[in-house]
Amino acid sequence: MKSLAMVLTAFGRKLEAREIEIPPLEEGQILVKITAAGVCGSDVHMYKGNDPRTPLPMILGHEGVGEIVELRGKRFTVEGEELRAGDAILWNRGVSCGHCYFCAVAGTPALCPERWVYGITRPCTEWPYLNGCYAEYIILSADTDLFKLPPALDPAVVVPVSCSGATAAHCFDYIQPRIGDTVLIQGPGPVGIFATYFAALHGAKTIIMIGGTDRRLAIAKEFGVTHTLNRKTTSIEDRREIILQLTHGRGVDYAIEAVGTPAAVKEGVALVRTGGVYLSVGFGDPNGRVELDCFFDLGRKNLTYQGVWVSATRHTSIALQSVLKNPSLFATLVDRRLPLTEANLALDLMAQKETVKTVLLPAAGGDGSE
Ligand SMILES: [Zn+2]
Ligand SMILES: [Zn+2]
């Protein structure tokens, strides 16, 4: 049996449709038929060659949902349910070693130096070859953390959980907004929108979103954003003045940067109040430097500057529970569905920020649906 896969063979060159032979499974492995694969901003960085982790040739796609076709031996979900062929599953996109200092002592498996990720770190020349989600099938390793999904759920709605949702959940390990707090979120992409949802859940009273696309900003409002600022129609001075007015001249309690540009960091740090926290989660590739004044911006201000890198299984669990509780709300994030063979178009749409979340539907074939 073979699997169609969209393969990145050279940076900046269109993905190539290839038929890859599905190898026999080894103990603990699972063959999964992908029912939906998400297109992430990181996929664009990798496609362009800006992510130093990218091996070639490779199958892109680290956000996936699918149905078990075959499993070798017994496999269980993180909740302890035994899985069987036909079950719909989500899996944690990264696999950490479980035994190093970061996994076993610090309790931060996202920072494991051995962590590898489907659709990011392994080429399709490395056994078992089907290592990414832009394909009809993927083979999951024995040490992948698994979640069982309700059978009737639209798989496309769950897709953003595995990267964007989990990464946004990771931010809330470092901040717990109190009822009445003000949170600024920079970037109305999927990470920023999930972060909005979590901030609102904690009780933040005012959630301000800065973005550059009215359509994305409008979707963010559905998730709890109270004030939107389009950076294309306002100046940096306008935005500062509006935010200071909303916060009694203090600045916001927390800001979450989900953009990945130095300009966003420079603007955002200046909008946080004395004693506040700035979280930077948007940098998926090395994208420049920021100059901060160590006295005024950091010391005198008692600012906490927190970087946030990827996520661990428990963050995926938090994001999944959120989507399962309110699937119709999260369905609004998925604003484009395309067949697998249109992966190149999907990457273009993502690069132009034309969509919030494009989902590829390998099982749909043909012309796909909107
Ligand atoms: Zn480890
Ligand atoms: Zn991602």
Give a description of the structure.
The longest helix is centred in the middle third of the chain and has 13 residues. Strands 3, 5, 6, 9, 10, 17 and 18 form a seven-stranded mixed β-sheet that branches. A six-stranded parallel β-sheet has the order 13-12-11-14-15-16, sandwiched between helices. The protein is globular. α1 crosses α12 and α4 packs across α5. It has twelve helices and 18 strands. It has two domains: 213 residues, Quinone Oxidoreductase, Chain A, domain 1 (Alpha-Beta Complex), CATH 3.90.180; 139 residues, Rossmann fold. β14, α8 and β15 form a beta-alpha-beta unit. Helix content is 27%, strand content 25%. The chain is of the alpha/beta class and 370 residues long. Bound molecules: zinc ion (2 copies). One zinc ion binds next to loops.
List the helices and strands and how they pair.
Blueprint: E1 2-8, E2 16-21, E3 30-39, H1 41-48, E4 58-59, E5 63-71, E6 88-91, E7 94-95, H2 101-105, E8 116-117, E9 137-140, E10 146-148, H3 155-158, H4 164-171, E11 182-186, H5 190-202, E12 206-211, H6 214-222, E13 227-230, H7 236-246, E14 252-257, H8 262-270, E15 272-280, H9 294-299, E16 304-307, H10 313-325, H11 327-330, E17 334-339, H12 343-351, E18 357-361
Parallel strand pairs: 11-12, 11-14, 12-13, 14-15, 15-16, 17-18
Antiparallel strand pairs: 1-2, 1-4, 3-5, 3-9, 3-18, 5-6, 6-10, 7-8
Helix pairs in contact: 1-12, 4-5, 4-10
The structure holds zinc ion (ZN) (2 copies).
One zinc ion is lined by residues 96-97, 100, 102-103, 112, 114.
